[in-house]
Structures are given as structure tokens and as C-alpha cells.
Design brief:
With 559 residues, the chain is of the alpha+beta class. The protein has 16 helices and 23 strands. Bound molecules: iron/sulfur cluster (2 copies).
């Protein structure tokens, strides 16, 4: 393999790699604004200048290809001076907006100003003034004064979103980013430009001014908006989710996520419709109850019906662990009807990230469903029998989307309906018992994405239950991935529990406890029963997931 020496370190590289790529692969940081590993090379910011033997002038590392025997210095005196000059040039017209800029705290320019600039300005003249607060589209706001013309946003729209909606207008220090007149930047992936903008020129209209970056905790998790399972960070202040941002995972979402996932998949967690504590139906009204009463009532009613009078409807919105516990409960009660609900919108996917399956765990629900001789897994048959009055009791796991009206009409005929729900919705209106389920942001668990990659979710928001267990959780081994508990002290906490835990408590009431005390124990139980999950625990899944199944979820398997 050819070799290059960077800062005295001899490194192997692959043909076609640039100096910045080799350096970054080997943990050598070369400062840059316009270079991005997933975008074409622009080479306009000049921040990555390096000294290369046998090249008379400094060369930019982003567009210089590594060659065998090349010797590169990234910290020499001439490089340091050149960087200071580049920083001084970029800062000539950059406003002193940091105290009011959303990017402050995670801004490349701010960080580099500390690390690589002279620390003082020689600019006495008036700065160039340009438009501020320009809505580029429904979700992205532009500040032309802050823009350093790196062109990352333009290249992203062209190359990743495949939607060339952005361009530069004007020349020199009057240049700014724009869309065509009377058009707007409304691409379904537009908000990724906010992440990759190295300064605060592009900001999220959904998040602007909600919180300073350093006031929030951030927890690695997975988006629940579709079966892609894009890796995200959940940003929380005072126990309220403020925003989601994409987390790098080369095998799932690279650096990106869609705008729907970013803006529409978390607000239910802190919505007024949250189910806060168990509810039972009295005189046709759901009234607040308590765990003991709700569990006792459900156990009593489930015991009353015969196995062929009871149906279990699992969920592609609940975790693998929740679905596995649910299947165990169905087995315990000799269920004859067991299926799961998913939500597919044909034609709604694209060839970037968005899939047609709008649930995060359809493949997981399919893999762990309760199957046995004499058990029907046909959801249509189940609802037909509920409608005919043959199935009298229905137990339904978390559903993020309303059932079709024919399903709701059928449920109206059932004698007993128990539902796990994060929020009140049309389905809960038909329930005799509503158990408050923890949302994806309030529990440990795993989802199996469309490509068979099992990925972890972790609590970012505290519930009453998690708050109680705070000390134990803070020390538990899977929290080393970065869950921060310090922001949990303040803010509203809902009385909700993960579905696997509610089901375990119900099994105990039915006289056959499962004895799970953590969701990881539920997963480990599954490893002995389902070969796809063998040898797994939460450490094994790690921070970016593990591929456990090769095949894709076929059309026939979708329910
Ligand atoms: S708006 Fe941001 S990403 Fe776009 S050119 Fe300006 S600085 Fe670069
Ligand atoms: S593509 Fe799917 S998983 Fe990814 S951010 Fe969008 S909705 Fe979420």
C-alpha cells in the first residue's frame, strides 16, 4: 500500500484519497469549513492549507490527492500564519452576533476563532451589511451577514437531496445564497443544511431561540418516523425535547435525516394529550386510576375470556423488547389470535432515506410475533371476528397512528379492550383500560430497521419511574453511551412505564411472573428463543447498531 507522512506519522492510504481524508481517517485534524466528507470538493475556504514537500506554495488538503512518499506538515509556522490570515479574511465581514446566534456553542467559526485566529481584528472599516432573517423556505432561515460562502448548503441540495434549489447571487463581498425568485427551499431534507452550515447563517425555524446549546443534554437515539431508523441525538432542556439532530451512522443515514423526522416525530412526548398514569373506563368515561387497580382489572378480565375469545395486537411502533414480552404474555394465555399493526403508505418513500413503512420496528414485530399451531396471525381475520362478536377481548400495544375506521367500528363491539398508549387518541376512546406507555425517548430498548439493523434507544426524558430509578440507572453499564441525567431535575415527568414492564407486572398478576427487571434482560431472554437475536446484549448492539438479518422486509410480510 502507498504511504504518506503527515506531521511525522507514516500512514497508509488508498489510491484516490485526498490528504484531508487520510488525515481525518487517522485522527489528525485539519481545520476546514467548506470540505465535507459526503460532498464534492469545493476548495473555496482555504482553511485546510498545509505545507507539502516539493510543492512550492501551501496547498489545500481537501483537493490535494495523497501520493506515495508525500510529506505533509499541518502545524508548521507558515501553515499557522496562513490559517490566521484566512480567519482574519473570513471575519472581516462576519458580524459579532455570537450572543444572539443559535449556532453559538456549536459553531465552527466561533471555535476556530479561539483556536486558529490572531485574537484581534485590524478591521476598522464598516462591515458589509446584508439581509438578515431571510426565510429560504418553510423550515430554514438565512442570515446573509453570517454566511462565509462555503457552498456546503448549495452542494448538499444538488448532490444529496438531488434538488438544486439554492445558488449564489452577486459577487465578491456582496455574494449571498438564494433560491429562484418566488420559489422556496422546501426540499424534504432541507434542514440538513442547518447542520452542515459551519456558521449560524442557516438556522432551523422550528428550533430558533428555543434554547442555548449548552443548556441542553443530548442523548443518542433513533428516529421513529419510518423504518429507516435514522440515528439521532435527542436534545432536552427541563425534561422537554427541544430538537432532534442527525447522528452519523454510515450504514443507516450517513450524516442526514429528513425534515419530517426532525420536526414531527417527537412533539407528542411533551404534548397535552399524554396519558399520565393508568386510566379505566367508568360510566363510558376514562377516569384516572392507579397501577394496582388497572393491572388487577385487566388480569381479571383477561382470565374471564377463553383463548379463542381473546386477541393480541402487537405493534411496529413498540420496541423489540415490548413486542417480545407481549408475545410471551400471549403464549401464557394460550392466545389463538396474535398479530401486529404497522403503517405503510405506498408511494411515500424515496431513494434517499424515507421509507414507505412509517413505523420504526415492523421487522422486529414480525420477527418476534407469537406463532404456534392453531394461532392465527391474520390481522384482517382478527378484526372480522371482533366485529362478529367471536373475539370479545382485545389487548393492543402502542399505536402511533389511528386505526382504520373499520377497525375502530369493530372495537366498539368488543367486551373488553386494553390499550398501551403514550397519548390519548381515537383508539383510546374504545379502551376499558389505558396503560400509560413510555415513549421512545423515555425508555431503553431496540428497533430493527428496514435493512435488518438492530439499534438502541435510550431515555432522554425522565418519567416518574425513571426518576425513581435514577441512581441505579446512572450507574448501569449501558448508560456509558452518553445519557445525561443532570437535566432531569426540573420539568414535568409523566407517570408512564415501558410496555415490557407493564406486561411483566400483568404476568405477575396472572400468577406467572416473567422476572425481568431491565429491558436488556428481555432482549437476553429473546436471544435464547430466536436465532436472529443470538449472542446479543446492549453492549453488542453498541452505539450504531448491529446487522442481525440479511433479508429485507418483503411486501407479503407487511400487515
Ligand atoms: S449558508 Fe452556511 S452552508 Fe451555505 S454557503 Fe453560507 S456558510 Fe456555507
Ligand atoms: S427518513 Fe425516516 S427515520 Fe429517517 S429521519 Fe426521516 S422519518 Fe426519521
Amino acid at each position: 500500500m502507498p504511504k504518506i507522512t503527515i506531521d511525522g506519522k507514516e500512514l497508509e492510504f488508498k489510491e484516490g484519497q485526498t490528504v484531508i481524508e487520510v488525515a481525518s481517517e487517522n485522527g489528525i485534524y485539519i481545520p476546514h469549513f467548506c470540505w465535507h466528507p459526503e460532498l464534492s470538493i469545493s476548495g473555496n475556504c482555504r482553511m485546510c492549507l498545509t505545507e507539502i514537500e516539493k510543492i512550492p506554495k501551501l496547498a489545500i488538503a481537501c483537493s490535494t490527492y495523497a501520493t506515495d512518499g508525500m510529506v505533509v506538515k499541518t502545524q508548521s509556522e507558515s501553515v499557522v500564519k496562513a490559517r490566521e490570515a484566512v480567519m482574519e479574511f473570513i471575519l472581516i465581514n462576519h458580524p459579532l452576533d455570537c450572543p444572539i446566534c443559535d449556532e453559538a456553542g456549536e459553531c465552527k467559526l466561533q471555535d476556530y476563532a479561539f483556536r486558529y485566529s490572531r485574537g484581534e481584528s485590524r478591521m476598522l472599516e464598516e462591515k458589509q451589511h446584508k439581509p438578515k432573517r431571510v426565510p429560504l423556505g418553510p423550515r430554514v432561515m438565512y442570515d446573509a451577514e453570517r454566511c462565509i460562502m462555503c457552498s456546503r448548503c448549495i452542494r448538499f441540495a444538488d448532490e444529496v437531496a438531488k434538488n438544486p434549489q439554492l445558488t449564489f447571487i452577486q459577487r465578491g463581498d456582496r455574494t449571498f445564497v438564494s433560491v429562484f425568485p418566488d420559489e422556496e427551499f422546501d426540499d424534504p431534507y432541507s434542514m440538513n443544511t442547518v447542520d452542515i452550515c459551519p456558521v449560524g447563517a442557516l438556522t432551523s425555524r422550528d428550533f430558533r431561540f428555543k434554547s442555548r446549546v449548552w443548556e441542553m443534554s443530548n442523548t443518542p437515539s433513533v428516529c421513529i418516523g419510518c423504518s429507516r431508523g435514522c440515528n439521532v441525538n435527542v436534545w432536552v432542556r427541563d425534561n422537554v425535547i427541544q430538537r432532534l439532530t442527525p447522528r452519523e451512522n454510515p450504514d443507516v443515514n450517513k450524516y442526514w435525516m429528513c425534515d419530517f423526522g426532525r420536526t414531527k416525530t417527537f412533539k407528542f412526548v411533551n404534548a397535552e394529550t399524554r396519558v399520565d398514569g393508568p386510566f379505566i373506563k367508568e360510566n363510558n368515561e376514562l377516569v384516572k386510576s392507579n397501577w394496582e387497580e388497572a393491572l388487577n382489572l385487566t388480569a381479571k378480565r383477561l382470565k374471564k375470556f377463553k383463548p379463542d375469545e381473546t386477541a393480541f395486537v402487537a405493534s411496529a411502533f413498540a420496541t423489540v423488547e415490548d413486542n417480545h414480552s407481549f408475545a410471551l404474555l400471549a403464549k401464557l394465555l394460550n392466545a389463538k389470535y396474535y398479530s401486529y399493526f404497522s403503517y405503510v403508505i405506498p408511494g411515500s418513500g424515496d431513494d434517499i432515506l424515507i421509507t414507505e413503512d412509517k413505523a420504526p420496528n415492523a421487522l422486529g414485530a414480525e420477527l418476534v410475533k407469537f406463532k404456534a399451531n392453531g394461532v392465527s396471525n391474520d390481522l384482517d381475520e382478527i378484526f372480522e371476528k371482533i366485529k362478529l362478536g367471536e373475539i370479545k377481548a382485545v389487548y393492543i400495544l402502542e399505536q402511533a397512528h389511528d386505526f382504520d375506521s373499520y377497525m375502530l367500528d369493530a372495537l366498539a363491539k368488543a367486551e373488553f379492550v386494553a390499550v398501551h398508549a403514550t397519548n390519548f387518541n381515537r383508539l383510546t376512546e374504545f379502551a376499558d383500560v389505558v396503560f400509560p406507555a413510555s415513549s421512545f425517548a423515555e425508555k431503553h430498548g431496540s428497533f430493527l430497521n428496514v435493512d435488518g439493523i438492530l439499534q438502541r434507544i435510550k431515555p432522554a426524558v425522565a418519567t416518574v419511574e425513571l426518576d425513581r430509578a435514577l441512581d441505579g440507572l446512572a450507574q448501569s453499564r449501558w448508560d456509558k453511551f452518553g445519557t445525561k441525567f443532570d437535566r432531569w431535575a426540573q420539568g414535568k415527568k409523566y407517570d408512564a412505564e415501558p410496555s415490557w414492564k407493564i406486561i411483566s407486572a400483568l404476568a405477575a398478576k396472572l400468577g406467572k411472573p416473567f422476572n425481568f427487571s431491565t429491558s436488556e434482560e428481555v432482549l437476553i431472554d429473546l436471544t435464547s428463543k430466536n436465532s436472529a437475536f443470538r449472542n446479543l446484549d446492549y453492549n453488542e448492539i453498541g452505539g450504531t447498531g448491529i446487522k442481525i438479518i440479511e433479508r429485507k422486509f418483503s411486501e407479503e410480510e407487511k400487515i
